[in-house]
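User: Can you recover a sequence for this backbone? Please restate the input before giving your answer.

Assistant: Of course. Working from this structure:
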């Protein structure tokens, strides 16, 4: 019997059959929990041994069902208590923020909040500083991390003593950061901004933040083993995974981390199964069973892109952020405390939700690798090969330089921590750019105007230009909640490191060789004391911060406070020596070589005073 199907019908059937086969192949492990579990076991268990991790908890939901719920290791090593995804609490860190944003949107639904109104209208006991009168900060700015706040946390972000926990309104007033940019210009991750939104939820609802989330989010989602309360309620204490660090060949327990001063930004404790319920609700746009935490239209608004400085890269939804993995759009959030590292992602195209939390100071690598590895296993990559445009070499100087994150401190001693926290951009081979960050080197090729992709990776960056066409900034596909500015030469790590190295060489030489000669022996002592003072600033500072690094988020230790006396002393001695140098040149004391050597010490001392001033080391600028 002759076939009556036309050629276009053959083509349609062929394409349909191919799509079915590809879909079946791509979701095979999702439809087989045993194979999925075997893959995840093989991914997690070896890395736990290699990286000395105490426990890991994972939950995965697919098409409205919990298809994998599993924990690895021990929540209490001494008691040999296995971690349990249903009972064991982990610290999801900044995944907590998602609950703050849902609370905000619930009140928006009720007409009690407006995303585009000045947040000062919702504050009772204090106001946000009015640095940019024509540009007030709104809840939309807070939700997209674009309020323009500097970052901060030195001495107050994570207090260990319960008696240092402040009411949220007091903490927000006391630790209000400076506004460094008009809102809506740059994205810069802000714990303060989220905590401020939590305070607004409390002010408008009439409930404290923890109670509001319990009643209006946890209870409807049946998240019975989740809380923002710190320290933990009595009925949850025994099920908290102990925070371990691998030190000296053994697992060392550390105290429960307190984040209550910024609770809406990161204080949640929860089980993997509870967060699975949350993911199920979000994948159904706010619906869990017969209950809703958001109306569908509100949930869709929450999850759609709300801000991006470059549409070619992932951007910010309202609090959730986008990422692209093997060509699929994910929205979610990561979270880190000192001892827990977590990630939560929602894939609406595949109706897939993934949560992982890793206990251990070094658990960040496993957390970061988990979702990409899972997607490599589940879905064929849609990644396109990278290709360069012609004549790129003529434009490489536009991009070369050092870029520093807007998420930094600019007004206090904490600014010093960004001294070496930059991304160096340099020309590479074969019309590429090389980017160096934290000792790691990455190579990028151009794929569009000011748009680059990392070789053999989905990671992309885009450069920003000002109205005159000058490159001024850098944004990243892997961090749509961050942007960077092109640092002026005097702020670059290279120049400052050269300054410190040269200054140290001059001061050591002045101290050891006693460069100055008679007939003015008092001048010898002045120069030596100045040199010793500057050397003490460098050496004592490095020692103070090195010995107290673990407590800097809790308090400013006395060692740092004492050290801050030294830059003041060195500055006063520099002023005295500068005056004496003027006298020496005016009265022609000593030989020309003597006066030049003296001037070198003075110049380097003045350069160091500039360094102290620029990096906020003069005075006790830590609050």
């Amino acid at each position: 019997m002759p076939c009556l199907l036309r050629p276009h019908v053959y083509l349609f059937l062929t394409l349909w059959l191919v799509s079915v086969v590809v879909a079946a192949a791509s979701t095979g492990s999702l439809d087989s929990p045993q194979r999925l579990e075997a893959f995840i076991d093989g991914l997690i268990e070896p890395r736990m041994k290699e990286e000395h991790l105490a426990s890991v908890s994972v939950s995965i939901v697919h098409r409205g069902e919990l298809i994998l719920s599993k924990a690895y290791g021990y929540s209490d090593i001494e008691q040999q208590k296995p971690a349990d995804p249903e009972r064991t609490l982990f610290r999801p860190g900044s995944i907590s923020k998602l609950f703050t944003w849902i609370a905000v949107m619930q009140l928006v639904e009720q007409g009690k909040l407006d995303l585009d109104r000045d947040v000062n209208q919702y504050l009772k006991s204090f106001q946000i500083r009015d640095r940019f009168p024509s540009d007030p900060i709104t809840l939309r700015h807070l939700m997209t991390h674009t309020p323009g706040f500097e970052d901060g946390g030195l001495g107050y972000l994570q207090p260990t003593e319960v008696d240092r926990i402040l009411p949220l309104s007091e903490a927000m007033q006391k630790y209000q950061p400076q506004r460094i940019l008009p809102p809506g210009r740059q994205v810069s991750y802000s714990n303060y901004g989220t905590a401020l939104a939590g305070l607004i939820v409390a002010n408008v609802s009439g409930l404290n933040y923890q109670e509001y989330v319990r009643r209006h989010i946890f209870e409807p989602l049946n998240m019975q083993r989740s809380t923002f309360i710190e320290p933990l309620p009595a009925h949850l204490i025994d099920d908290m995974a102990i925070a371990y660090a691998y030190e000296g060949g053994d697992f060392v327990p550390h105290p429960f981390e307190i984040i209550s001063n910024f609770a809406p930004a990161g204080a949640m404790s929860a089980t993997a199964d509870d967060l699975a319920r949350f993911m199920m609700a979000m994948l159904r746009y706010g619906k869990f069973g017969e209950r809703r935490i958001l109306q569908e239209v509100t949930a869709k608004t929450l999850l759609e892109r709300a801000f991006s400085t470059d549409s070619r890269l992932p951007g910010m939804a309202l609090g959730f952020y986008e990422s692209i993995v093997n060509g699929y759009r994910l929205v979610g959030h990561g979270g880190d405390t000192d001892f827990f590292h977590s990630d939560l992602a929602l894939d609406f195209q595949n109706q897939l939700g993934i949560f992982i939390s890793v206990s251990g100071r070094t658990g960040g690598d496993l957390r970061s690798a988990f979702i990409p590895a899972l997607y490599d296993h589940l879905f064929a990559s849609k990644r396109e090969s990278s290709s360069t445009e012609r004549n790129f070499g003529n434009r490489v100087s536009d991009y070369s330089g050092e870029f520093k994150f807007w998420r930094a401190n600019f007004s206090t001693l904490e600014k010093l921590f960004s001294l070496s926290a930059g991304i160096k951009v340099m020309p590479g081979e074969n019309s590429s750019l090389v980017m160096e960050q934290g000792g790691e080197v990455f190579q990028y090729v151009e794929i569009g105007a000011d748009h680059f992709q990392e070789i053999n990776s989905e990671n992309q960056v885009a450069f920003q230009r000002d109205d005159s066409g000058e490159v001024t900034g850098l944004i990243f596909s892997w961090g749509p909640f961050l942007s960077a500015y092109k640092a002026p030469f005097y702020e670059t790590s290279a120049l400052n490191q050269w300054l410190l190295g040269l200054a140290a060489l001059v001061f050591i030489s002045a101290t050891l060789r006693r460069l100055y000669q008679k007939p003015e022996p008092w001048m010898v002592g002045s120069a030596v004391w100045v040199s010793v003072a500057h050397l003490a600033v460098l050496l004592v500072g490095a020692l103070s911060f090195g010995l107290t690094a673990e407590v800097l988020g809790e308090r400013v230790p006395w060692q740092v406070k004492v050290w801050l006396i030294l830059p003041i002393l060195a500055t006063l001695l520099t002023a005295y020596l500068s005056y004496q140098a003027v006298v020496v040149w005016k009265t022609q004391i000593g030989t020309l070589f003597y006066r030049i050597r003296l001037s070198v010490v003075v110049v380097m001392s003045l350069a160091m005073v500039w360094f102290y001033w620029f990096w906020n080391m003069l005075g006790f600028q830590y609050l």
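That completes the design. The CA atoms of residues 328 and 349 lie 8 Å apart.
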